[in-house]
Design goal:
heterodimer, A: 333 residues, alpha/beta, Rossmann fold, Alpha-Beta Plaits, 2 domains, five-stranded antiparallel beta sheet, 12 helices, elongated, B: 259 residues, mainly alpha
């Protein structure tokens, strides 16, 4: 499979010696959804601005759709669609006007541009609002319009810079579905930056984690999660006096892990599937359980382990995610 | 520039000029002051300095004398607005959308530049209508064309200046800087009095100020006393302003994404 994006030693240093991107390397395969995950100020948007020719790198090189972002910027611009952070769309224009303007920017003939605008308005569900000024749109409508604008010329590579920041859960899920559909039906390569772990987990085939301008981890979500260790199983015996017996039984399934008082935790060497054997062993030892908690490693765990700190604001900023860390599956209580 | 690039630049610039003109209608709070100010200048100065028409200013009507000042000031506002709109677009991220597309970058300034010229035509028309209502007879076809051409040219020159500021400062908070240079240029020219009545440093500055020749030619157009020498002096002055301010704007454009 060919690479849609190739980045080698990319550097961006701003005046005053501020190193926003510090020699990153990455390869994004054609047709892939690549999630670029990191906190605010990690270098995500700077990387996107360089890949979309909005900012010149100060070191390294990058190609997008086979074209060098510095030496063949015009070809890159023809091949890419860009939806930048904060949906940079003119609030005084209508959705239809903006789509037609975008078609002109991409040299699409007038009639074809108008037809494409109507098709995209329909696709993102904005036909009824097409003649309203964008300033009256909700956040979700703006993001959908932004996505439509990025798709006017049917790009080979689509850059989405934090596309769901500030959206309500319904709008967020709707946008995810649109990105999935686009990738599935058109085979468009999607480079998605996000500070939401769940978004990267849900959408991306592969994820790169950037922190302090450097890529600290890269792989599929499953690979990344597996790389940080086995799932943790925490058993709370119904009879607190049997904590010792429980620990003895669990010791056969993997090394002990930190658990809360009155409970015993173990890292399951056999993975989540090992839970069945654990339950059988506890049954055979006649240990009744008050609760069984399985904690699968998450991208949050990956982030913490690779960077040494938590992805600030993820849980609070991601509307409706309702969790701070982990995908703790309550399988019994 | 190849023929296809030129054609693309014209096409995109036309679309951006159209957008700038729609925004005028949709943001009246921005447009109205730039229309009212020239009218205010026309009414206020012709009223306040009416008595000066007794001194040799080339006409017996101070209204006729001040009309080109009002049209040039209106054109200056049109140019300043081009820069303010661009600064707003940079701040809002709309410029990123334009420059991440394959559209020629030149159109980013050529569009507002064209829109500034068109806006100045509208402002000039309103000012001339107001003067006509004030009992000032129209200056004839050639004179009218002269006044319109000078206003549009000045609007384009000041649009270059204000867009240059916008491209360097990248914030609408730089608007006072855009206005400052335009005001200084206009107010240190022959806006209020002909050079013969000026003395000291003001006379020296006025002699070197390109706006002086533009205003002087506009006045001859209004008085229907145009000369080829005056026209060439005005054209040379416009060329100087365009060369300086145009280079400034193009330099700012070339720096986009490089800082």
């Amino acid at each position: 499979m060919t690479d849609a994006i190739v980045v080698e030693g990319l550097v961006r240093e701003f005046k005053g010696g501020i190193l926003a991107v510090d020699g990153i390397d990455l390869h994004v395969r054609a047709g892939e959804v690549y999630g670029f995950l990191g906190p605010n100020g990690a270098g995500k948007s700077t990387t996107v601005r360089m890949l979309t020719t909005l900012l010149r790198p100060t070191g390294g090189r990058a190609t997008v759709a086979g074209f060098d972002v510095v030496h063949d910027a015009a070809s890159v611009r023809r091949a890419i669609g860009v939806a930048l952070q904060d949906a940079a769309i003119d609030p005084f224009m209508t959705g239809r006007e903006l789509l037609r303007l975008q078609a002109v920017l991409h040299a699409i003939p007038r009639q074809e541009g108008h037809a494409r605008a109507e098709e995209l308005l329909e696709r993102v569900g904005l036909t009824d609002a097409a003649d309203r000024r964008v300033g009256t749109y909700s956040g979700g409508m703006r993001r959908r319009l932004d996505l439509a604008l990025a798709l006017v010329h049917e790009p080979v590579v689509l850059f989405l810079d934090e596309p769901t920041t500030g959206l309500d859960p319904t709008s967020r899920v709707a946008l995810w579905e649109e990105v999935r559909r686009l990738n599935r039906e058109s085979g468009t390569t999607v480079f998605l930056t996000t500070q939401y772990l769940e978004e990267a987990d849900q959408l991306a085939g592969r994820v790169g984690i950037i922190d302090g301008g450097k890529i600290v981890a890269e792989g599929t979500p499953t690979e990344l999660k597996t790389s940080v260790g086995d799932p943790t199983l925490m058993i709370t015996p119904a009879d607190p006096s049997r904590v010792g017996d429980t620990a003895e039984v669990l010791a056969q399934f993997g090394p002990a892990a930190d658990g809360k008082p009155g409970a015993v935790a173990v890292r399951l060497a056999a993975g989540a599937e090992g839970i069945v054997q654990v339950v059988r062993a506890l049954d055979e030892a006649d240990i009744a359980t008050a609760a069984i908690d399985l904690h699968q490693p998450t991208l949050d765990d990956v982030f913490v382990i690779k960077t040494g700190h938590r992805l600030e604001g993820d849980a609070s900023a991601a509307p409706g995610s309702g969790r701070r860390r982990g995908r703790g599956s309550k399988v019994g209580r | 520039m190849s023929a296809s690039t030129f054609s693309r630049t014209v096409s995109v610039s036309g679309m951006l000029a159209w957008r700038a003109l729609i925004l005028v209608r949709r943001m009246p709070a921005v447009f109205i002051p730039s229309l009212v100010m020239p009218l205010f200048i026309l009414v206020a100065t012709s009223g306040a300095f009416h008595g000066i028409s007794a001194v040799p200013i080339g006409t017996s009507s101070y209204l006729a004398f001040t009309l080109p000042f009002a049209t040039i000031m209106g054109a200056g506002f049109a140019g300043i607005n081009a820069g303010m709109t661009l600064a707003r677009d940079i701040e809002g991220g709309f410029v990123d959308r334009l420059i991440s597309s394959p559209a020629p970058r030149m159109s980013l300034v050529a569009g507002p530049f064209t829109a500034a010229a068109m806006r100045s035509l509208f402002t000039t028309t309103v000012v001339m209508l107001a003067a006509w209502i004030g009992q000032l007879p129209p200056p004839g076809l050639l004179g009218t064309i002269g006044i319109y051409v000078m206003a549009a040219s000045f609007a384009m020159a000041t649009a270059c200046w204000s867009m240059g500021v916008a491209l360097r400062a990248r914030t609408v908070q730089a608007a006072p800087m855009m206005q400052l240079v335009v005001f200084i240029l206009v107010f240190t020219s022959v806006a209020y009095a002909p050079r013969d009545l000026q003395t000291g440093w003001l006379r020296t500055v006025s002699d070197w100020n390109p706006v002086t020749r533009i205003l002087e030619f506009s006045r001859t157009a209004e008085f229907q006393t145009m000369t080829w020498a005056g026209l060439w002096a005005a054209i040379a002055s416009i060329a100087v302003l365009m060369a300086v301010f145009g280079s400034f704007a193009l330099y700012g454009l070339s720096r986009l994404g490089n800082d």
